[in-house]
């Protein structure tokens, strides 16, 4: 066929119509809001020239005047850093990106292909929700997508990039994916919109304060990362994927590394204050241990007493879990428990070794926490670490009291390599609390009760809370200088590279959700 062949001209014309989405006027309005179109987003996300579209000529609604090629979603596959990924990008310029049966079919098809190919699935979400004129069929479409989310879970990475609205039941799909990235002041998620809330409860609120990026980054904990615009969000997606394998039977990609795995950082020897009541920044510890510029913190503004994120040590991907002693003294509360447990399970799904820095005085006491279920939520951390089959390395930097010591990747629940710094304190509780219980009468009878309490506390620390006491019983593999931490972790990662755990036969465990 030649360029003059009418069939070729027709094909090119239809393709051009499909590429225009909802038409030039709607695209112009979309751009005026500072948003990229679905196809422009794919151009940013994927390696240049790598995208192959699937089913571009699909149409959905029966009304001829409302039919658009592609039916409001662009689907296909391409590459990110040379690795194959499957993608769908909702097109808000076509019927507000609303989901009907044809759009649901296209999304489900690309998810099925991703699962069968063992490749990540990335959703670029920008939709007004279910297509009302298709009634229950649009709800059926969401059900089919949810079912595939569950089938893909723990098999291939699922990343949701929220680039516009996602309201109602549609928000459950990104909520069950592995990483959610939102755009500040442009994307939002909620189950019930402001109008319904006002009608039912009388509460007045706008979409940003109800379900914007700031809400999900600080209060709800649904979003892992936020970016100022579409382009930045898509680049974050590329970065996140660089730490993840393509599926659950592959190891994460090994990155080129010019940072010596044996590098010692003398500043680490000075980072923990001699006074245990003075805080320090665990973020500084993490950044000095991992490869330069490799630290990517997830959910940084939610449950800030806990730290989770991805990094590299010697070019190997690792998941970092820690407490931040500068926030609530690093105590573990309900939100911190959920944050840690979900991240540990995500890493375990995708063969990412876990490195845990422990500095916690325990679980947060209080009537509110007890009544809201701190036992149930804290048990999630215990369950997640005990279940995880990936290499697990922990370093106690200072406080590790009570249940917090046990659940944070201790040897008692299957930690592979466990180190302590000389500043570590391991006990049922801190020395002050312990002597108040053990020697209450002796302290009260002393000529100077406060001096006696301090003397007994120091004696308790020397005899019981220091790391050598725990190491004597084998609970630590070694007490190390802080400056050695990077080299010790790198050596442990290499030694545990081929770790294999065969779980007992069962359908699945019963995590206390």
Structural notes for this entry:
The protein is of the alpha/beta class and 513 residues long. The protein has two domains: 6-243, Alpha-Beta Complex (2-enoyl-CoA Hydratase, Chain A, domain 1); 266-424 and 466-495, 2-enoyl-CoA Hydratase, Chain A, domain 1 (Alpha-Beta Complex), CATH 3.90.226.10. It contains 20 helices and 17 strands. Strands 10, 11, 12, 13, 14, 15, 16 and 17 form an eight-stranded mixed β-sheet that branches. A seven-stranded mixed β-sheet has the order 1-2-3-4-5-7-9, sandwiched between helices. β14, α15 (402-407) and β15 form a beta-alpha-beta unit. α4 (101-117) runs parallel beside α5, α12 (334-349) runs parallel beside α14 (374-387) and α16 packs across α18 (449-465). The longest helix has 17 residues, at 101-117. The chain starts with 5 loop residues before the first helix and ends in an 18-residue tail after the last helix.
């Amino acid at each position: 066929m030649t360029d003059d062949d009418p069939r070729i001209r027709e094909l090119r014309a239809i393709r051009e119509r499909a590429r225009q989405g909802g038409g030039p006027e709607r695209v112009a309005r979309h751009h005026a809001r500072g948003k990229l179109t679905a196809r422009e987003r794919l151009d940013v996300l994927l390696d240049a020239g790598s995208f192959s579209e699937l089913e571009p000529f699909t149409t959905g609604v029966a009304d001829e005047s409302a039919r658009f090629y592609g039916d409001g979603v662009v689907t296909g596959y391409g590459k990110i850093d040379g690795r194959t990924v499957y993608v769908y990008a909702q097109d808000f310029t076509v019927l507000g990106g609303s989901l009907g049966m044809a759009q649901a079919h296209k999304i489900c098809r690309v998810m099925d292909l991703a699962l069968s190919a063992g490749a990540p699935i990335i959703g670029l979400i920008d939709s007004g929700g279910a297509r009302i004129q298709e009634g229950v069929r649009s709800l059926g479409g969401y059900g089919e997508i949810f079912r595939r989310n569950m089938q893909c879970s723990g098999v291939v990475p699922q990343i949701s990039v929220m680039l516009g609205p996602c309201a109602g039941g549609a928000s459950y799909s990104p909520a069950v994916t592995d990483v959610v990235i939102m755009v500040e002041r442009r994307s939002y998620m909620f189950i019930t919109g402001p109008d319904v809330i006002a009608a039912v409860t009388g509460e007045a609120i706008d979409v940003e304060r109800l379900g914007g990026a700031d809400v999900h980054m600080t209060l709800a904990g649904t979003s892992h990362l936020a970016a100022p615009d579409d382009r930045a969000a898509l680049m974050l997606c590329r970065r996140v994927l660089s730490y993840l394998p393509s599926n659950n039977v592959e190891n994460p990609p090994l990155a080129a590394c010019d940072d010596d795995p044996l590098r010692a950082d003398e500043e680490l020897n000075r980072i923990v204050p001699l006074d245990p009541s003075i805080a320090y920044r665990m973020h500084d510890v993490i950044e000095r241990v991992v490869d330069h510029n490799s630290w990517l913190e997830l959910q940084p503004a939610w449950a800030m007493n806990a730290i989770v994120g991805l990094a590299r040590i010697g070019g190997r991907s690792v998941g970092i879990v820690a407490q931040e002693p500068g926030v609530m003294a690093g105590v573990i509360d309900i939100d911190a428990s959920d944050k840690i447990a979900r991240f540990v399970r995500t890493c375990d799904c995708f063969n990412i070794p876990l490195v845990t820095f422990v500095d916690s005085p325990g679980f947060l006491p209080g009537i509110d926490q007890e009544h809201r279920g701190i036992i149930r939520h804290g048990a999630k951390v215990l369950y997640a670490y005990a279940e995880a089959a990936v290499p697990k390395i922990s370093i106690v930097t200072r406080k590790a009291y009570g249940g917090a010591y046990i659940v944070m990747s201790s040897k008692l629940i299957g930690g592979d390599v466990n180190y302590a710094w000389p500043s570590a304190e391991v006990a049922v509780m801190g020395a002050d609390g312990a002597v108040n219980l053990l020697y209450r009468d002796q302290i009260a009878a002393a000529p100077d009760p406060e001096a006696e309490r301090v003397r007994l506390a120091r004696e308790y620390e020397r005899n019981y809370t220091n790391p050598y006491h725990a190491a004597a019983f084998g609970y630590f593999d070694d007490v190390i200088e802080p400056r050695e931490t990077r080299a010790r972790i790198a050596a442990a990662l290499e030694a545990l590279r081929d770790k294999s755990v065969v779980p007992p036969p069962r359908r699945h465990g019963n995590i206390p959700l």
